[in-house]
UniProtKB/TrEMBL annotation:
Region (Disordered): 1-34
Name of this protein: Hydrogenase expression/formation protein HypE
InterPro entries registered for this protein in UniProt: HypE (IPR011854), PurM-like_C_dom (IPR010918), PurM-like_C_sf (IPR036676), PurM-like_N (IPR016188), PurM-like_N_sf (IPR036921)
Domain PurM-like N-terminal: 81-193
Pfam families: AIRS (PF00586), AIRS_C (PF02769)
Protein family membership: Belongs to the HypE family.
Domain annotation PurM-like C-terminal: ranges: 206-351
Compositionally biased residues, Low complexity: 10-25
C-alpha cells in the first residue's frame, strides 16, 4: 500500500491533537517517530497500544522491532526466537519468559495454569531443550475468589509434574479491583540444550520439508466457544500440552533438525511467515495437507475465521532436511502428541521471505503475517 503525504507522526505531536493534553516530552518521555512503520493503520492514526499489538502478527513484530530491540540491544535478543540460546559456564542454556492473560481462566481441556507451564516448556523445547526450572509470577486482582486462585495453582502444579519441570521461584502482586482480569501469570524457564542441536530459522534451506505435528486451530476455537457461549454441535477441547517429549523423540532420529516453532499467537500462518522472513527462503504449503479437524473447520466457517491464523497450544511445526523427513515423521506419529503429524509443504528458493499456499482448486494464494489478531486473549 503506497504511502500518502502526511506529517510525520510522533508520540509528541499526536498527543497535541488533544487540546491541552501533556505531551510525552512534557513528561520527560522520549518521542518515537512511527512514520515509517507498518501500513495499514492504526499505528499512524493513534500512537497508543491497541489489542492487536499482543496478537503475534505484524503489529506485535513492529512493536518489538521498533521499540524493544533498539532499547535493549544485544545479539541474543536480536535472534527473536521462542527462547534464547545462551552460553553459561560451559553449558548451552535455553532461556524463555512468557505472560498469560487468557479469558476465561478455565476452559475445556485446560486453564491459565496449564497454559503458563506448557507454554514456557514448549518455548524451551523449540530450542531443543528439556525444561528444568520455571519461575512463576502471579498478578491477582483484588476480589478474585480464593478457590479460583487455588484452582489455577493446582492446575499449574499438576502440569509441571506432567512436564517434568520444577517451579523453583515466584512472586505475587495484587492490583486494585477493576485493574486486572482475575489472574495474570508470568513465567520464565531454563533448560539445557543438548550438544549438536542448533535450531534456528537461519538454518532453513530450500528443499527442507515442513511437518506439522497434528490438527491446528483447536485451542483458539475452544477458547472462543466458551467465551462467547457458542455451540458447534460438539465440545472442542484445547490442545494444550507440553511438547518436550515429542521434541526429544524427533531429536533421537537426528539432531540435525533445522527449526521448530509452536504456532501459538497468530497461528500456523504467523509461524511460517516469521520463518520465511528470517531464513530468506520461500515456503510453499499444500492447503489440503494441513490437518484441520471438521469441528474447527465448521466453527471457523461460522465465525469467518481462517484456521491457519488461529492459535494452538500443543502443536509444533518443524523444518526437516529432506533426507531425514520420512524417519522424523514416522517417529512423530509413534508419539501420542504427534499421532496426527503430516507433511504440509517445503522450503523453496523462489519468492524468498514469502509463504504461498496451493489451494485444492489448483490456484495459489499468499499467506501473509496477520496484522493483529483474530481472537483476543487466548494465551
Amino acid at each position: 500500500m503506497p504511502d500518502t503525504p502526511h506529517t510525520p507522526l510522533t508520540a509528541s505531536n499526536a498527543s497535541n491533537a488533544a487540546a491541552g493534553a501533556p505531551t510525552p516530552a512534557d513528561r520527560g518521555l522520549p518521542t518515537v517517530d512511527i512514520s515509517g512503520w507498518t501500513c495499514p493503520t492504526p499505528l499512524r492514526d493513534q500512537p497508543r497500544v491497541v489489542m492487536g499489538h499482543g496478537g503475534g502478527g505484524a503489529l506485535s513484530a513492529e512493536l518489538v522491532q521498533q521499540i524493544f530491540v533498539p532499547a535493549f540491544g544485544g545479539e541474543v535478543l536480536a535472534q527473536l526466537g521462542d527462547s534464547a540460546a545462551v552460553a553459561l559456564g560451559g553449558a548451552r542454556l535455553a532461556f524463555s519468559t512468557d505472560s498469560f492473560v487468557v479469558r476465561p481462566l478455565f476452559f475445556p481441556g485446560g486453564s491459565i495454569g496449564d497454559l503458563a507451564v506448557n507454554g514456557t516448556v514448549n518455548d524451551l523445547a523449540m530450542s531443543g531443550a528439556r525444561a528444568a526450572y520455571l519461575s512463576c509470577g502471579f498478578i491477582l486482582e483484588e476480589g478474585v475468589e480464593m478457590p479460583v486462585v487455588a484452582g489455577v495453582a493446582d492446575a499449574m502444579g499438576a502440569a509441571a509434574r506432567v512436564a517434568g519441570v520444577e517451579v523453583a521461584t515466584g512472586d505475587t502482586k495484587v492490583v486494585e479491583a477493576g485493574h486486572g482480569d482475575g489472574v495474570y501469570i508470568n513465567t520464565a524457564g531454563i533448560g539445557l540444550i543438548p550438544d549438536g542441536v542448533d535450531l534456528r530459522p537461519q538454518r532453513v534451506v530450500p528443499g527442507d520439508v515442513v511437518i506439522v505435528s497434528g490438527d491446528i486451530g483447536v485451542h483458539g476455537v475452544a477458547i472462543m466457544s466458551v467465551r462467547e457461549g457458542l455451540e458447534f454441535g460438539v465440545e472442542i477441547e484445547s490442545d494444550c500440552a507440553a511438547l518436550g517429549g515429542l521434541v526429544e523423540t524427533m531429536l533421537a532420529v537426528t539432531p540435525d533438525l533445522h527449526v521448530l516453532r509452536d504456532p501459538t499467537r497468530g497461528g500456523l500462518a504467523a509461524a511460517l511467515c516469521e520463518i520465511a522472513t528470517a531464513s530468506c527462503t520461500g515456503i510453499v504449503i499444500q492447503e489440503r495437507a494441513v490437518p484441520v479437524p471438521p469441528a474447527v473447520a465448521n466453527a471457523c466457517a461460522i465465525l469467518g475465521l481462517d484456521p491457519m491464523y488461529v492459535a494452538n497450544e500443543g502443536k509444533l511445526v518443524a523444518f526437516v532436511p529432506r533426507e531425514h523427513a520420512d524417519a522424523v515423521l514416522a517417529a512423530m506419529r509413534r508419539h501420542p502428541l504427534g499421532a496426527g503429524a503430516a507433511v504440509i509443504g517445503e522450503a523453496v528458493a523462489t519468492h524468498p521471505g514469502m509463504v504461498v499456499a496451493r489451494t485444492p482448486l489448483g490456484g495459489t494464494r499468499v499467506v501473509d503475517l496477520p496484522l493483529g489478531e483474530q481472537l483476543p486473549r487466548i494465551c
